[in-house]
Amino acid sequence: MTQIRADWTREEIADLFNLPFTELLFQAASVHRENHPPDQIQLCTLLSIKTGGCPEDCGYCSQSVHADSGVEATKLMDVQAVLQRAAQAKDQGSQRFCMGAAWRNPKDRDMSAIVEIVKGVRDMGLETCMTLGMLEPDQAEMLAEAGLDYYNHNIDSSPEYYERVISTRDFQCRLDTLDHVRKSGINVCSGGIIGMGETREDRVGFVHTLATLEAHPESVPVNALVPVKGTVLGDMLADTPLAQIDDIEFVRTVAVARITMPMSMVRLSAGRESMSEATQALCFLAGANSIFTGDKLLTAPNAGDDSDGALFAKLGLTALQREEPARVCKVSEAA
What we know:
Radius of gyration: 18 Å
Shape: globular
Mean pLDDT: 88
């Protein structure tokens, strides 16, 4: 297996971005094959269990109260309704069931229902992942005791560009929550969004932040911005060349994430529905090995099960059936 490093410099990561495209893909594919089955992709399902009404002002998010996107706020879904959706996801082949709530942070009054949901989904034999906003240490411990497998909290972009996207919390708040999650024993899921108007230098900073954490995130979702009318970024980038990230640059970002975080699951997340089959194939070659299935991601459209099945058949890919390498190593080290 590839040596795991947490001492990457920004210069080293910039050098990777600057490699000739074919050389970068070769290196990324080589690292991927050393650590993961190259023809298997993890299938995940994402469900919004509480939509809209979030007080944060994230410029990309249609669920913010600051956005004029038409998304209506809902209450937390009933436990049984969530479990029914989880059962459907399992029947459709998903390995992990991810649940998102549009909160700045969960309230104590909601934690009992959240814990019940985690336990119920785990009892089905599915991996569990939640994203609920910022967490306090005691909340992370509650989720860990319930058996939560992963907690998602994206850093979104580089430390320098972050404040241009969000003003209601700072970058350190993101890192603090990741630290609470890591200390509780829950696996970390953290990535970001490409195509928010940032520069390559910002993409270098984004990867550098994750790749220099004491322990790499077990999952790294890489999103392509889905510009939504009524959001700050959606309106700002509308009808401009920046409205969609260059496909080759997106693949480069996936490849650099794979090289610098060899054991992590690198997930193609939001924005995949607008990617061509060729671009998705390049992402898989570059080391992406996880996707969200279904036709919806929280409030954004997704590719859908039928198109994914057709693409997998065309590329000779199958659904991942075994444990993720990073979790296997984590268990082995604990033993």
